[in-house]
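for the writeup, i need someone to sanity check this before i put it in the appendix. the sequnce is what the collaborator sent (i think, or maybe the updated version? ugh). structure was predicted straight from it, no edits. if anything looks off just tell me and ill rerun, i have time this weekend
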Amino acid sequence: MRLDDPVVLDLYGVTDKADFMDRCAAVLALPAWFGRNWDALAEALGELPRPVAVVVTHWQEYARRAPRDWETAQEVFAAAVEDSPGRLSVLIALGDGRRESTDGRDGPEPGGG
């Protein structure tokens, strides 16, 4: 597994569990059977077709709006990593990834930073 070629799970704009599951399905290319619930996410993460490093960015707003779901998401990721040593790494990016733009509006940092 190469950490210099990660899959970025950008949670910018995600405010609830449904948004989170949709974003995971799209970014991780989860199979059609993915049921968009925690058990299905755990199973799908264990069946990813190749070793993958996932970097979770812009998660802070989701964590504020849905703290229990964010906690559960972290538990699911941690269990999946533990169950798939060497095949899955999940890294949570620190910082809020936001900066003040030159026109005074806040926005995501260029490049997803």
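Residues 65 and 80 are 24 Å apart (CA to CA). Confidence is low (pLDDT under 50) at residues 99-105, 109-113.
thx in advance!!
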